[in-house]
Amino acid sequence: MSVITLNEPGKELLMMGNEAIARGALEAGVRVGAAYPGTPSTDIIENLAAVASQMGLYVEWSVNEKVALEVASAAAFSGLRAICAMKQNGMNVASDYLLTLNLVGVKTGLVLVACDDPQGHSSNNEQDSRFFAKMADLPLLEPSTFQESKEMTQWAFELSEEVGGVVILRGVTRTSHARGNVVLGKLPPPGGKPYFDRTKQWLTQPLVPKHQQLHHTLDRLEEIYAQSPFNQYLGPERPKLLIITCGTGWLYSQEAVELLALGKKVGILKLGTTWPLPSRMIVDYLKKTERILLVEEVDPFLEGNVKEIAADFSRKIGPKDFFGKKSGHVPPVGEMTADRIVDALAKIFKISYSARSAGYEKRAQQVAKKMLPGRVLGFCAGCPHRASFWSIKNALQMDNRQGFATYDIGCYALGRGPAGYYQLRVGGAMGTGTGLASGFGKLSQLGFEQPVIAMCGDSTFFHSAMPALVNAHYNKSNLVMVILDNSTTAMTGFQPHPGVGRNAMGDEVTPVDIEGVCRAFGAKVEVTDPFDIPGTRKKLLHALEDPEGAKVLIMRRRCQMLKGKDEKPPYRVFVDQRKCIGENCGCDRVCTRVFKCPGLIWDAKEGKSKVDEVICTGCGVCADICPEGAIVKEETK
Amino acid sequence: MAAKKGTYNLIITGVGGQGNVLSSQLIGQALVGKGFFVTIGETYGASQRGGSVMSHIRISAKKQLSPLIPRGKADIVIGLEPVEALRVLTVYGNSHTVVISNTRPIYPVDVTSGDEKYPGEEEIQGALKGLSRKVYYIPATEKAMEMGSPILGNMIMMGALLELNLLPLSPAEFRETLAGSFKAARLETNLRALEEGKRIVRSA
Fold first, then answer.
1. CB count in 10 Å sphere of residue A230
2. Is the per-residue pLDDT at A64 higher than 80?
3. Which end is more exposed in chain A, N or C (fewer Cβ atoms within 10 Å of the end residue's Cβ)?
């Protein structure tokens, strides 16, 4: 049973921030949840989906974030509370509707959770989604702890109803994807029946008055926020320095102040309500000190907005020194840590601080420099993508026209590195590989002679590659689209998608046939098993040679992480060291230097290849690439 | 020492797929049940994809700590992979840190290809010693494979950790948490792995 449905008010549990958000939504009586998976936001909707039938909810994985917001909005127009969650990049996708919905408003509470990923641990950018709140004139909340993640979510629904609009709750990796203490509250009784009142229209018109109304609401929010317990101050009455912070900065700042024993000199103002800023309250704190340090992730959002307040009230508060990302005291990129705040404070107060003795530090640096081999991210042992990229590399080489591949988001994007033999050259957003390839394909009209392969995942295909494929066909672009169909959304933790035949709540549905969709779009379609290396290469070469239109090659094989759970390894794989001739083989150690499956290691003593039985999943692909036949695959029974 | 200041900073490190996230969650759950504040910060994304994965587990009797341990402030480092233990010490270790390290390497692909070097066993042991107060070596993966699955290695390591009494958590209390989290068959194997860890560290 999931901990998020325990109806034991007062019980204290260890919860992930995202679980706490899901629990907060349940305590607020949420009835509908929708999202497209994206780390670090995925667990919110995943947790709700797992308890949907038990709690009487409707929860879905939508095909993309914009549709997710639309699905959640439908509930909020019909008298139900709804939640929608996405990672930062998803906000870009959803923003088209968000910047309509802000003017339209909602009937019942709608909370949009945006989880940013400072440092891009699981992302291809560092993006600060808070600017969407400012752009859309919508209320913004930022939890600092796990308990707050729950309580703030709950309050966000009330606030949404109080102001009649969407509330944005912004999490970050270290609040959403970390764990901490949460005290449970009460779960409400099951809610009522949805109903859309057709006597009312939900429109952006009359446009200018609606926009005006949003600005009135922002003024009202400042008053509401001034009373909020989510804004707190810790420190002396007249601090020598005031830290203004939000999100993760609250706990990090407290620790930094403790590490430097500056508790008597430094005050910390923690803001949970960050758009609009409660300006009169902030002015009261600015009056207390001459110096202010801004601490936040990712961009100087708070920093700019606090300075704006300081400028507006300059006669009241007098001149101030501001420290932060602009002044260079806090790095303007990368994730926040207590150490970064220690460094900023040490610089401001001219304190010298070192965490360890000079001798230890020196030894540690020497070890770091000389003894730590890197671990580049790669495909798992047995991953179908490795075999797919192997064929792509070889086919492009044989084709010999300087061909290259474009890409999107997903596990296969790791193919931009050694795992995919550096085949991916340009791309990086959802569906972009195919859109770019559609453009490259048209350049042939202007003298371009290189073939282009658009790499796309199965879930990404539904998210946003479909329009690009239609575009390619419509505009007669010459491209090869490779859909790496591993039958799951693997990168975010194996969520189903429309091609899988199962929805978020576990119900069986008729799968959308990717092959059929591509054919309907006018593409020539072939399907291959990437583990059939010669067959895949042949089909790929054939597609590359075809000068006309959009060709789709679906490389279909289920993700090994899922397969490994319900199937035994098909082969026992080992190296026959009598046959392996190591460095003397003309292959340049193709298995361990080029193919690079982590299941193959190098036996330095013997100077031969070896299989690491802890890592190998028995897929047997490497047996087909060894020119000496030294890698043996034996069928398991 | 950790106990004196009332906080415990533990890092469990390894390579994706070694079960690091689950171990930290179980320890955290058990300690929250005992009334402690626990914060766990995980580096992930790399999980299952060959990258380094570490969990910061921070325990306090007084308040919720931040999800990342400040540099040089780790009290205990559990290395599910030896070089990963070393990597963590270079940033978070100090001369009082206690290390429990698995002995079996997982070779990065760049080591296999010959582009990078994996340090020898003696070299690793010397470096671990130079960056800690005490190191315990546990052949956890070998033992786990004898028991049927390398994934049990992490529970063997947990058994060693609890036996050393470095956390405010007894082996019996942890066993109770496991009993509430695992189904019968899986529980039995994991309990055996815990016992194995205890046995190995006692004879170390």
1. 19
2. yes
3. C
H/E stretch holding A245 reads: strand A241-246
Helices assigned H by DSSP within B6-118: 20-33, 82-92, 109-112
Residues in chain B: 204
* CB–CB contact B66 A592 (8 Å): no
Instruction: Provide the residue type at A340 as one letter.
Output: R
Residue B191 has pLDDT above 60, yes or no: yes
Spell out the CATH class of A384-565.
alpha beta
For residues A173 and A139, the answer to whether their CB atoms sit within 8 Å is no
Band the pLDDT of B46: cuts 50, 70, 90. low
Point out the residue among B41, B109, B127 whose CB comes nearest to the CB of A371.
Answer: B127
Please answer yes or no on whether A380 and B17 come within 8 Å at the CB atom. Answer: yes
Interface mutation vs chain A, best among B7, B32, B37, B112, most A CBs within 10 Å: B112
User: What's the Rg (C-alpha) of chain A?
Assistant: 28
Contact B70 A589 (CB under 8 A): no
pLDDT at B47: 55
The domain of B135 spans 2-203
Angle between helix A279-286 and helix A301-312 axes, rounded to 10 deg? 80
At the second CATH level, the architecture of A232-349 is: 3-Layer(aba) Sandwich (3.40)
Alpha carbon separation from B78 to B37, B149, B174 (Å, rounded):
20, 19, 17
* Mean local confidence (pLDDT), A570-583: 94
pLDDT tens per residue, range A184-238: 999 999 888 999 999 999 999 999 999 999 999 999 999 999 999 999 999 999 9
Q: Please state whether A148 falls in left (phi above 0), alpha (psi between -120 and 50) or beta.
A: alpha
Report residue A602: phi and psi, to 5°.
-110, 120
From the number of C-beta atoms within 10 Å of its C-beta (0-12, 13-18, 19+), residue A8 rates as exposed
CA pair distance A78, A140, nearest whole angstrom: 23
User: Which residue's entry shows tokens 């996230």?
Assistant: B21
**Which of B73, B108, B141 has its CB closest to that of A375?**
B108
CB contact under 8 A, A598 and B109: yes
Structure tokens given for A392: 């792509």
Q: Report ipTM (2 d.p.).
A: 0.96
A3-226 CATH pick, 3.40.50.2300, 3.40.50.12160, 3.40.50.970, 3.30.230.10? 3.40.50.970
CA distance A432 to A39: 19
For residues A84 and A151, what is the distance between their CA atoms, to the nearest angstrom?
17
Q: Is the pTM of this model over 0.95?
A: yes
What pLDDT, on a 0 to 100 scale, did the predictor assign at position A96?
Answer: 98
Q: Which stretches of A29-81 are assigned E, i.e. beta strand?
A: 32-35, 58-61
